[in-house]
């Protein structure tokens, strides 16, 4: 549980044990980028990290940065994405709190990618065109969201915007964090580890001017002449905050994160009067793909009805499963496309196989006639390449008419849904912490997963929407806290 | 304040004073449509209304029904709208809780329009092409939402979907309610007035089987053999619920509704375990148009920055104003487009006129250089017919370079923002009340403004998204409660 004390008054701090210009709390991707930019803008920076080294949850992530608008990789692979197409997609799908911030992110996305490469992050000029949750090779570019999904594909030319660092597997993120951490070290940015910020300090004028830090056997106070940047991760691991904000997550849901994602960053910001946003947003995931052929199956609820286009991004599908009656859902396949879902953590179990759809309907305890009706309608339309109900793309449509049939249980309480929370502190385009009425709190910033994500709803999330905006707004906050303009 | 008691057990009701099949609480548009369909499906219906007659807030509204997909009026006026285009627009802009329900609404929208006409609602084959909040004539078809606004205009062919009954002014809604109330009377549907439902009653199995009604000097209990339909309006007038869910509404915000919109319907549903949705959604409105020429102005916040495309639907603009720093905003015009905003309730005051933009910036107490920079950038792009920041349509772009200049204060605390709440009970495609985990509560339905609106966010609302879905889902709930299928 997070150990956060009420905000302190500067007048009560007898001695400042350390002084600097900008304190950065947390050394994941957002904190690292903040620290580098603040340092390069001339500020005296101090990084305070709870773990014994840098990296945070970013180093444990799959290493995908959501970027677009015509990045070097997109261009090399033949995509003519533009900031405008990217902004149209994000504006329509993400319901962002701050459209101006989204516009900045899209406009600056190609140059931000170049900046990341200049820091040493390795990105190949390669592309993966299939459906995957993470990759077991070093390929870079991949579609990671709902760009090709109806109706989003009507808003903007779909372009792949997931930029994966050249590492492999579901924890490839460390390959991107290593060069960022090296840069901090090379440039001599001081960092203290095993150090837990437990309180903010503000002066009489309401400006945040420092922090209280707990270390083994010691409590110290550090003064920040220009600003404090909270980059301390999400509240994934805070059971109390999860129960309060996300009651639909159940006993079999497991947070994706590291122990310090206990909400301390969010609680620190709130202690200074920062508002929160999107606290009820979440990305649960227990993907049915890979293999992609399973997308040709259908997903039904306990009424025997389809409710989500099966070619949705896995986090979108999971959000819909979470909202179904009793949170029950099954993936139905025929013999032609039968395969086991490959994501091992999901634990989708094969219920059984049946010779007829009637038997399957009874075996799954669905209302009499419901699945027969759903499949008859689906198959008839699929034979014509149509899905008038949910608009699954024609490339995934085929009649499920090659019995026998099988069903996988993908219910919320039978599979394991990993989740990432989307909510956090309300911030402006430079990471400024904002009150309910959007007044900035002087001297206080929040970036990365301590701030609310751009998508307020898990149905709009795409892989990379943590590291991409986290690194970008981290940089902006660093410059702003140091007193520099973004465009200088 | 709403007078709602905890749910009662059927075993505690000594005598049922009345018995019927379906009880409909409230006789606005949703309740009327529910009652008509349940009655026509063979149910013995009882309408219980708090006022001394039917009509509800629907009769006080501007009488606009959001319908499309190729209605008779759209066809007559030359628009080839389709259910698919309408669904794409609503899916992308509204973030609906139940996409299947939205699909039904769009698919059935043309036939639902025909049904409304058959009940006697008068709709002309005429169109208003300008920008208005309500009309002082009997014209029918008008664009009432963000269909033409970027990026929504990229999702679907924009089509006007506001269908106004042939009445005039901001309370034209009664012209639509009169024939619906007449039908109820002609068909002999019993209604009791001045009767306040204060509690639901459920049996041992958890099924809602009746209500407790308070009348002047009497308390009676009515049994419903098949179902209870809550159609009792919104929680607009419930100060406590507003303060809890919508803290950004301020002292100068005024609810649009009638006294019985005190949240009783929502609280009744909650007493049976119904979940709520979109409780933080709201449409504030204090439109800058008409006249439309004011859309050629720009709206800036206290940082001197634009934050919303000025051609947004007025409720969307107001939502953005609500979220700006200190909730401050100004409409800036030059001499060429100068006019006073015409909506009298908005009370947008002219701050002053200035000979130079520098003087205006100082006069509005904006940061030095901010407004000059914003207007220089805007004017340069507008001269080329472009608005790269916010994509206001080219038809509304002109350089604001004909001084002197003027500013209207449209701040949240200086103007009067009228508001409609969007939140309410969580329901399924037939109006079934749903628990947090989307299990239906047997025998209980909610429709109209007692249920959550389709758009969960006020930025996506369009005029008519109360009466349109309210009348449609009212009908579905009536049939379902009566035991009939929708498609029979």
UniProtKB/TrEMBL annotation, chains A, B:
Q: Which GO terms describe its biological process?
A: steroid metabolic process
Assigned keywords, A-Z:
FAD, Flavoprotein, Oxidoreductase
**Protein name as it appears in the record:** FAD-dependent oxidoreductase
User: What cofactor is this protein dependent on?
Assistant: FAD
Q: Does the keyword Flavoprotein apply?
A: yes
Asked if Flavoprotein is a keyword of the record, the answer is yes
Per its record, what are the GO molecular function terms?
A: oxidoreductase activity
Q: Which Pfam families match?
A: FAD_binding_2
The organism's lineage?
Answer: Bacteria, Pseudomonadati, Pseudomonadota, Alphaproteobacteria, Sphingomonadales
Residue ranges of domain FAD-dependent oxidoreductase 2 FAD-binding in the record: 21-452
